[in-house]
Amino acid sequence: MNISLKSKKALVGGSSKGLGNAVAYQLANSGASVTLVSSNEKRLIKTVDDLRDKTGLNHDYLVVDYNNFEEYQKIIKEYLDTNSIDILINNTQGPKGGDVMNVSIEDYQKSFDLLFKSVVFTTMIALENMKKKKWGRIINMASMSVKEPLSYLALSNSIRSAVTTWGKTLSNDLGGYNITVNNILTGYFNTERINELNSDKAKKLNIGVNEVYNAMKELVPLKRIGDPKEFSYLVTFLASENAAYINGANIPIDGGLIKSL
After folding, report:
1. Is 201 a domain residue?
2. Which of 29, 96, 113, 221 is most exposed by smallest CB count within 10 Å?
3. Beta-sheet strand order (sheet of 60-63)
4. pLDDT digits (tens, 9 = 90+) for 102-143
């Protein structure tokens, strides 16, 4: 199968590292012009320069602070008022870890702004031009925890579930415009985020980080942690014309970790 995103423009959240970065590379390698979004300007500049060298296409970046919603609004609105995009990858940094008994009401509000409000705000502005073109792809990067909550990620479990329900609802309204909306339920991947969470878990349990990783791998039927490139292949397919009839889906990519049907 040949996946071509030639002439398509993509906006990829949280793309200076991790899964978002892998997605940005794969979209660009498939012909899309990519605008990366992150708070780390140094990494963004390095990535954009590398993408330009590798693809010969024009790519761009936006520096945003996902924890400052007011500032985020201004930057995203200014960009989308003058730039039309075809592919929107909604992805932000994750909220802090912690079980239900150890997070506050304020933590929930911050997580709501970070994970939910930013997604809805960006999507609703991006939709204006997608509807005019009668073509668009909206992909929400969520987590397997919306199906099987992880006890140490109470904030993420709660708010990401809201994002996926919202995405499913939105998909019902946009089908007539040839715009698809899909949610990806992410499992365990080799990223800085999972390294941080596993390091915290190791400290709390007073065990080595390798023990945490080995226990994690044992939970996955494939007995390994995913490579971000594997994740990027799924996103790129969903962003293409090849996936035109996939809409309103919650798609797990977890090595078989989710036990439910």
Report:
1. no
2. 221
3. 60-63, 33-38, 9-12, 87-90, 136-143, 179-186, 250-253
4. 889 999 999 999 999 999 999 999 999 999 999 999 999 999
Closest by CA position to 161, among listed 178, 148, 152, 173: 148
- DSSP structure class, residue 39: S
pLDDT digits (tens, 9 = 90+) for 190-208: 998 888 888 988 888 899 9
Instruction: Write down the H helix ranges in 134-261.
Output: 154-174, 192-205, 209-219, 228-238
Rounded distance between C-alpha atoms, residue 122 and residue 222, angstroms: 35
CATH number of the domain at 50, please: 3.40.50.720
Exposed / middle / buried, residue 98 (Cβ in 10 Å: 0-12, 13-18, 19+): middle
CA angle 156/162/166 to nearest 5° reads 140
- Is residue 120 in a domain? yes
Amino acid at 218: E
Per the structure, the count of domains in the chain is 1
Q: What secondary structure letter does DSSP report for 95? A: P
Here the tokens at position 204 are: 């709390």
